[in-house]
Amino acid sequence: MTETAAHPAPTTAAFLERCAQLLGPRGLTTDPERMDTWLTDWRGRYTGLALALAAPASTTEVAALVKLCAAHGVPIVPQGGNSGMAGGATPDASGTALILSLRRMNAIRNLDADAGQVVCEAGVILQHLHDAAEAAGLRFPLTLGGKGSATIGGLISTNAGGTQVLRHGTMRAQVLGLEAVLANGDVLDTLTPLKKDNRGFDLKQLLIGSEGTLGIVTAATLRLLPAPIGRATAWVGLGGIVEARTLLRQMERAMGDALEGFEVVPAHCLDSVLAHLPNARAPLGDRHEWNALIECVSPVSDSTSLRETLESALAAALEDTLIADAVIAANDTQAEDFWNLRDSISAAERALGPAMQHDISVPVEAMPEFILAASPAIESAFPGTRAVAFGHLGDGNVHFHILAPQGAVRGVWEEAEGKAVSSRVYDLVTQWSGSISAEHGIGQMKIDELARLHDPVALALMQRVKAALDPDNLLNPGKLLHAAPQP
User: Fold this and answer.
1) CA-CA distance, 83 to 125, in Å (whole number)?
2) Is residue 280 a contact partner of residue 272, using CB atoms and an 8 Å limit?
3) Which of 208, 236, 261, 263 is deepest in the core (most CB within 10 A)?
4) How far is CA 159 from the centre of its chain?
5) pTM confidence score
6) Which fold has domain 108-226?
7) How much is the average pLDDT of 285-310?
8) Amino acid 219: pLDDT
9) Where are the domains of the chain?
10) What is the pLDDT of residue 2?
11) 384: which residues sit within 8 A by CB, 6+ positions away?
């Protein structure tokens, strides 16, 4: 009997019936209309099919479901907010996989303000965690443009970064404990945070950044910090990216631990955002080839001192002709306006037409020279394209976008010339001792490039770990690593 969506094969029908009994009507759907939204990634680059969409409500249900999938040989694609940038939460076209959505597991189990810790489930949306921490007079020190949809499980699975990595580190640095369901349905519980624990491997670190290929994160213990009381935010106009790096070093010396963010925005990106956002205004009167967005915070209430220190540092840079102009936000509203300009770059660039987006890193000291060398190299090799770099200069990570030639057709150009563009970008990044993925993960978008360019010894070790923890390759197959050859 041929299997169809309306008439599944007997073994599939039995599996789905068991799933329905386990999860109930809210926890499982095969309705194409209800599933449709979750079959395409946020960028619209990848679309797949799925056997069903499961939404368990507890870790117990996740574990039972995973055991059921293992017994029937059904692949699992874990999914959070479906806001990933590398196609890591999208099933393939076979229709044999089960999408396992963690969105119903959205409880904050415990928030200990005194300890500065919170235990939350994988489906908690980042913005909701920010709100809960703020209500307790604390904050979670990781944020990004997609905070309204990104989930804690997704952020952990990709080891997300964001705009505060300069001071606080990536998601890996925020995770104090972890709960995850392994490929055989066992539950790994390391939620209790211990500052010192030398009982062998730190298994939670193995799961962070593994993109759901080694286990399914169901909950985490995260660190919280005192909410900043003092804040000073500046928008600076510069003549070049080399000057931006020099300014970064000067700000590090002048502001010390108060320096939390240092983002670079080229003129092209700011122009795009101003055209894209209604009522948006440029922070400075003149147009500058490069801009820097500087964020400084302090846990004490002396905002005046923080602002004066930043103002003094910028005045010295202006006197040395390192910068052309600068403005310090007069209040939080203006500061958020500055950040809205930065956070809207991806959407504004996307509105311009097709592009290949590259989330890359090279050593901080080499980043300006990389941008200056790689941009003309790509534009020369692919006439009509435009290279645009923006983002987290402070931690050596920029988003290196290559805009398609005028008139290129979205969805066609990316699959043709766009792939060649990305390969060339990744060749250059590798030559500069960098990484082809700084914070978005590998997913399915970069799986071939990782196999082509990454250290063979490291790849072999990852394959062996994958084979040990998921011997049947049922957890997010086709993501991060190619299936290991059978002996």
Assistant:
1) 11
2) no
3) 236
4) 7
5) 0.90
6) 3.30.465
7) 89
8) 98
9) 10-101, 108-226, 230-345, 353-440
10) 44
11) 404, 405, 406
